[in-house]
Amino acid sequence: MHSEVVVSRSAEPRDSREARNGSPQLDAVSLAIIEQLQQDGRRPYAAIGKAVGLSEAAVRQRVQKLLDQGVMQIVAVTDPLTVGFRRQAMVGVNVEGDLDPVAEALTAMSEVEYVVMTAGSFDILAEIVCEDDDHLLDVINKRIRALPGVRSTESFVYLKLKKQTYMWGTR
């Protein structure tokens, strides 16, 4: 998700509101709607409404608000191998100076699916999906390592993906 979410678990039914820090504050019903969509992003609004105690129209309105606020996205998740991307890797990046310009440059690369700033051995982790080894080498060697501020990289090539899920709920 692109926004931080402050989760309020109060039992009082109220719509999503802004928290003090500007992030959306979600009520129990909005959280339940998100969990329903994490189980099946194509679940009909009528079925979601039945599960959370709202009308279809109310669910539609809340889902649109959650999308507009950037709290969630509804997307098709593919298996990269079946759509022609035979090489995936996680790349650890160490940066000299400000992390933001490097993170923004990585985010702009079409091959980069995931960017996170970290504390630990790497300043930034970036997940890359490529057509083949030559493509991966080109992205790492000619594009990532060429970014101003990049001090070093370490690549972790995926041999086999055993689990990928987006079902962490809303805890």
Give a structural overview.
With 171 residues, the protein is an alpha+beta fold. 32% of the residues lie in helices and 22% in strands. The chain has 5 helices and 7 strands. The protein has helices spanning 28-39, 45-52, 56-68, 100-108, 133-144; strands spanning 6-7, 17-18, 24-26, 87-95, 112-117, 124-130, 150-157. The strands form 2 sheets. The chain has a 4-stranded antiparallel sheet. Strand 2 and strand 3 form a beta hairpin. The longest helix is centred in the middle third of the chain and has 13 residues, at 56-68. The chain is elongated. The chain starts with 5 loop residues before the first strand and ends in a 14-residue tail after the last strand. Residues 1-17 have low confidence and may be disordered.
List the helices and strands and how they pair.
Elements lengths: L5 E2 L9 E2 L5 E3 L1 H12 L5 H8 L3 H13 L18 E9 L4 H9 L3 E6 L6 E7 L2 H12 L5 E8 L14
Parallel strand pairs: 1-3
Antiparallel strand pairs: 2-3, 4-6, 4-7, 5-6
**Mean pLDDT reading:** 86
Low-confidence segments, given as residue ranges, are 1-17
Shape: elongated
Oligomer: single chain
Spatial ordering of strands, largest sheet: 5-6-4-7
Structural class: alpha+beta
Number of helices: 5
Query: How many beta-strand segments?
Result: 7
Radius of gyration: 19 Å
Main sheet characteristics: 4 strands, antiparallel
Order of helices and strands: EEEHHHEHEEHE
Strand content: 15-25%
Helix content range: 25-40%
Q: Alpha-carbon distance between the termini?
A: 15 Å
